[in-house]
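Thread: sanity check for a docking pose with zinc ion

Original post by kr_44:
Hi all, I'm comparing my docking run against an independent structure prediction. Below are the sequence and the ligand SMILES. Could someone generate the full complex and paste the structure tokens? I mainly care about where the ligand ends up relative to the chain.
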Amino acid sequence: MIDISDSINSQQTISEPVSLKGIGLHSGIEVSLKLYPAEADYGIKFIRKDITDNNIIEALWSNVTNTKLSTTISNQSGVSVSTIEHLMSALSGLHIDNIKIEIDGPEVPIMDGSSIKFVDLIDTTSIKNLNRKRKILKVKKSIKIEKDDTSVELKPNNQFSIDFEIDFPSKLVSHQSRQLQLVNGNYKTDIASARTFGFEKDVDMLRSSGLALGGSLDNAVVVGETKILNSDGLRFKDEFVRHKILDSIGDLYLAGSPIQGYFLGNKSGHHLNNLLLRSLFADKKNYEYI
Ligand SMILES: [Zn+2]
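Reply from moderator J.T.:
Ran it for you. Here is the predicted complex with zinc ion included:
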């Protein structure tokens, strides 16, 4: 079980603007990303600098418009930003509540396929306390979404905890489950550097669908029939399930505030994570703010 129990009671932002450049995994387009401090209760907003009108997209579950391979959010005018989950995960892991994210293209850069570059970037500045109480979403009723043999569940709990299980028909990935405690900031050491992954057999199919155009061994673990194709191998023996936890932390941060609840993921992904939040917010009896 992952206990993200570093108890931070005040809202936080970053002290100074920071920026980086990189390519989008699916678009292959180079983009620059700039993070700015924001005031209390601002939340997390993306601003598409390459678009002049209606270019603000709030990082919220209700704005999710596509969950195929990555999470995309869009505003009312259809302006979107995709592959936001690793950056959202870093912001959640570092307890950043308020931040303005300027981006000059349609997709957050993939960097090395994990969230460590975003964590390192934020580490180049300091975290600023905003002297306003954090609003925490407390889960009051269990919600479970099942689809075929996959599921996600949120249960009442006294902190934010995650259990994840995967089972792929590949002997290199196969069955992995992760239960660990995240305390004293070890999101950075245990989760942030776990990379996204894909199977060699799927690469041609993805490319012909116009996806993974920026994908390479520099930004994903590629699993072949008999071996991992990356020359340095894996960063953790169970890097795959750790990455699924990284993704879930990012997707769940689209709740708009930290969650006090127990998340269980079983072979699930971005789509079920969003359905879970939609179902949570569908009934006010499911949650309360504390
Ligand atoms: Zn991911």
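The CA atoms of residues 51 and 104 lie 8 Å apart. Hope that helps with the comparison, let us know if your pose agrees.
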